[in-house]
Amino acid sequence: MTLRSGRFGCRPLEVSDAAAWQDARRRNAAWLGPWEATVPPGVPPPPASFRGLVRELRRQARAGRTLPFALTVDDVFAGQVTVSNIVGGSAMFASVGYWVDQRYAGLGAVPTGVALVVDHCFTGAGLHRVEVAVRPENSASLRVVEKLRIPEVGFAPRYLHIDGDWRDHRLYAITREDVPQGLLRRYLADPTGD
Fold first, then answer.
1. pLDDT for 8-49, tens place per residue?
2. What's the domain count of the chain?
3. N-term to C-term CA, the chain
4. Is the Cβ–Cβ distance between 124 and 12 less than 8 Å?
5. Domain that holds residue 75
6. In this structure, are residues 48 and 18 in contact, taking their beta carbons and an 8 Å threshold?
7. Cβ–Cβ contacts within 10 Å for residue 32, how many?
8. What φ, ψ does residue 36 adopt, rounded to 5°?
9. What CATH number did the domain enclosing 126 receive?
10. Which residue from 45, 49, 100, 191 could staple onto 79, CB 3.0 to 4.6 Å apart?
11. What global pTM score does this model have?
């Protein structure tokens, strides 16, 4: 599934993204480090190679637990938008996380990519609710949910293991009923979120 709006797109993460992914992660290590999920002590580490990461994400996608997307700007790899923790049954919800290469920050790529993916979750994947968890100190990520006008629904102390410790998060959520015409359409009508 490839999703697109203007210069920005989301497509399946591929093994062929390895060089661009590794380059972006290396160049942005200091910028992304404070916001990156880490593995708590005693939990097996994630795959060491990019190929192993893609293989694991594909396995989870086949099991219906995740949707991993490469974020693109002018068809160039720019980051990731990942739907995870997909729950079916009476819940029908998931979480969305994202990161972007700093050279593409501020262009509108992340809010556009998140809106594309949320709309796909509602229409293509049949989900009802999508959640975003953001560290209170992450002003750039908070601006994404503000621009998208995703409502804040709560506060979760020590919610995720980030940058080596359990970190508090602000929780945001949107349902299909909140955006009957689609989140992307609403965002493009007012990209400032004001």
1. 999 999 999 999 999 999 999 999 999 999 999 999 888 888
2. 1
3. 31
4. no
5. 3-189
6. no
7. 17
8. -85, 135
9. 3.40.630.30
10. 100
11. 0.95
